[in-house]
Specification:
ATP-binding, ligase, globular, NAD+ synthase (glutamine-hydrolyzing) activity, C-N_Hydrolase, Nitrilase/N-carbamoyl-D-aminoacid amidohydrolase, single chain, alpha/beta, Rossmann-like_a/b/a_fold
């Protein structure tokens, strides 16, 4: 009868503008799909050029090289006898579109432009592309000569159409269209489309995976059908980590699940499904059938090809599975670790250097690097030749095999405790103990001589010597002396990153890791150009609360007992003099607010889009059991003063792994002024008026 269709989807670790590598990974995915019997292969969004090309989309070179890659795909025997669905930018009548190019046996069947563009948060698709606004309309697209010579076609269909094969009907969605309130799969399903495809460029956010899975399953639960989702994976050149999770769903249930975090550059899911299950599922949904009888039909591109075999009664089909979600702590352990590995191997550096203070933030960063080492050893053990080749190149040893995470960590990870006269022995011991347990190459040094030299220059020039407040100095002197220490640590971090391996007789340089968390960045509780200034920061958009939970996870899963004393210690910058040999300075006292409060402020400011007055109105209810309205007003005003005074620091914030939707990253995610009227006079007056009324 021809009822069992075999389809493939994939997650590819594509890299922006790496046309050679992207082509090789596409070919590998097609080979795997064909070897498993698939007759249709779906790839991620814009997989030919890589999703994160940004303003390179404006360049004609990007279009040219994308078509050159398409030419290689079309003429290759590897793409014969399988419908291939690939993503690339296409210029049609001088308008640039984000497209799927679907082809079979050297013939392009359809170019399908994206209808709903992602244009919020990290996404700027409307900057580079135009959405296709002509519903159910198809035009002629004149192919470039290099493609005409391969396909023998002068024009091909371009627009909003579906494919009608000999046994079923397929319709495409592209990423954002699944999230839109009027998703195309609704009308396509009513028009008889049985297989929906979605090519995505969807990035990781903590606790987000379930939303994507629920959307896919609900798409076919209401309307019946098969839904195939492909996604990019890995770091393709910026702050985002695309988290795979390729999946196949039928009639509201998941039948195939891909990995969310993995060092495999190519992952292919294949499923064999019975079309009659879709038809019988739809048959009893009367509301769906009534709506289907009135639907406006889609243009159909007829394809003389079948996704099934004529005699397939005995072919086994896939059964539903239970989706396994990671905990947030597992996500922190795996996502930033995979991102760091991609950044390390693609930047062609020899490892990382981290200023390890013995506090929670830098310790969490160290644990993420240690988790990366675990992932590398596991991938090599499972036969990943790409990871093995990258590891050998990074450590400069062609015979090396990473088997022990601690041993590999010593080769690629340098930690450095930078003591001053204000540092306690406790933090020194905690940093040293953690370094021993994860296996990093650890350095202890003292910065006092450098600090005295810098302050001495100022004293010679001005004939004035600043003092800490405990010695009679004012707040300006106190802060300046703290900042000198912090900035000298940044200078030394880069010096040691460049020359540590040279001093050890080894080639290469190290990437400097930052370890400022999202809450400190939001409040501006950091020195501009201190150790928060680094090459990359794996925890820059993760909250203190989540980092504490992650530390507990590492104690349990990596047996890092040194973390227990780090967890029990009060967070401190250790930039002011000790009192009787003990730390007197604490982060929360310095900030004038708790980390828990900061997380709430951050979510209200960014996710709930709350200004000072709206935040006050929400918090008087949220905190009514613990604060009076006047106390809430005072807290809100203080937060907005500190946030606005320090917003300029976000313009130089180290590129951070994007993990939270309240990240204050100024580069493209959280676009705000950095010179505010910090009195907020009008806004605060509205708050005061409400307080008096209450």
């Amino acid at each position: 009868m021809g009822r069992a269709v075999t389809v493939a989807t994939c997650a590819l670790n594509q890299w922006a503008l790496d046309f050679e590598g992207n082509l090789e990974r596409i070919f590998r995915s097609i080979d795997i799909a064909k070897s498993k019997g698939a007759r249709y292969r779906l790839g991620p969004e814009l997989e030919i050029c890589g999703y994160g090309c940004s303003d390179h989309y404006y360049e004609s070179d990007t279009l040219l090289h994308s078509f050159q890659v398409l030419e290689k795909l079309l003429e290759s025997p590897a793409t014969q006898d399988i419908i291939c669905d690939v993503g690339m930018p296409v210029l049609h009548r001088n308008v640039r579109y984000n497209c799927r190019v679907i082809f079979l046996n050297k013939k392009i069947l359809l170019i399908r432009p994206k209808i709903s563009l992602a244009n919020a948060g990290n996404y700027r698709e409307l900057r580079w592309f135009t959405p296709w606004s002509k519903a159910r309309h198809v035009e002629e697209y004149f192919l470039p000569r290099i493609i005409q010579e391969v396909t023998g076609q002068e024009t091909v269909p371009f627009g909003d159409a579906v494919l009608a094969t000999k046994d079923t009907c397929l319709g495409a969605e592209i990423c954002e269209e699944l999230w839109a309130p009027n998703s195309p799969h609704i009308e396509m399903g009513l028009d008889g489309v049985e297989i929906f495809t979605n090519s995505s460029g969807s990035h990781h956010v903590l606790r987000k995976a379930h939303a994507r899975v629920d959307l896919v399953n609900s798409a076919t639960a209401k309307n019946g059908g098969i839904y195939i989702l492909a996604n990019q994976k890995g770091c393709d050149g910026d702050r985002l980590y695309y988290d795979g999770c390729a999946m196949i769903s039928m009639n509201g249930e998941t039948v195939a699940q891909g990995l969310q975090f993995s060092l495999d550059d190519v992952e292919v899911l294949v499923a064999t499904l019975d079309l009659e299950d879709v038809r019988s599922y739809r048959a009893e949904i009367s509301s769906r059938n009534l709506a289907a009888s009135k639907v406006n039909p889609y243009p159909r591109v007829k394809v003389n090809f079948a996704l099934s075999c004529p005699d397939d009664v005995a072919v086994p089909t896939c059964m539903p599975i239970q989706w396994r979600h990671h905990s947030p702590e597992e996500e922190i352990s795996l996502g930033p670790a995979c991102w760091l590995w991609d950044y390390l191997r693609r930047s062609k550096q020899a490892g990382f250097l981290l200023p390890l203070s013995g506090g929670i933030d830098s310790s969490a960063t160290a644990c993420i690097v240690y988790s990366m080492c675990h992932q590398v050893c596991l991938a090599v053990k499972n036969g990943n030749a790409d990871v093995l080749a990258d590891a050998r190149r990074i450590v400069n040893d062609e015979t090396y095999i990473p088997e022990d995470p601690r041993e590999f960590c010593k080769r690629v990870f340098t930690t450095c405790y930078m003591a001053s006269e204000n540092s306690s022995q406790d933090t020194c011991n905690r940093a040293k103990m953690l370094a021993e347990q994860i296996g990093s190459y650890h350095i202890n040094l003292n910065i006092d001589a450098a600090v005295k030299a810098v302050v001495g220059i100022f004293s010679v020039v001005t004939s004035r010597t600043p003092q800490f407040s405990v010695y009679g100095g004012n707040s300006r002197e106190n802060l300046a002396l703290q900042n000198v220490q912090a900035r000298i640590r940044m200078v030394l971090a880069y010096l040691f990153a460049q020359l540590t391996l040279w001093a050890r007789g080894m080639p290469g340089g190290l990437l400097v890791l930052g370890s400022a968390n999202v809450d400190e960045s939001l409040r501006g509780y950091l020195t501009k150009y201190d150790c928060s200034s680094a090459d990359i920061n794996p925890i820059g958009s993760i909250s203190k609360t989540d980092l504490k939970n992650f530390i507990h996870y590492c104690i349990e899963n990596f047996q890092l007992t040194a973390l227990r004393s780090i967890m029990s210690a009060l967070p401190t910058a250790e930039l002011e003099p000790l009192v009787d040999g003990q730390v007197a300075q604490t982060d929360e006292a310095d900030m004038g607010m708790t980390y828990a409060e900061l997380s709430i402020y951050g979510k209200l400011r960014k996710i709930a889009k709350a200004g000072p007055y709206s935040m006050f109105c929400k918090l008087i209810n949220m905190w009514k059991e613990i604060c009076t309205p006047r106390e809430v007003a005072s807290k809100v005003k203080y937060f907005f003063r500190m946030y606005s005074v320090n917003r300029h620091k976000m313009t130089t914030l180290t590129p951070s792994y994007h993990a939270e939707n309240y990240s204050p990253d100024d580069n493209r995610f959280d676009l705000r002024p950095f010179l505010y009227n910090t009195s907020w006079s009008w806004q605060f007056r509205c708050i005061d008026k409400q307080v008096n009324a209450l």
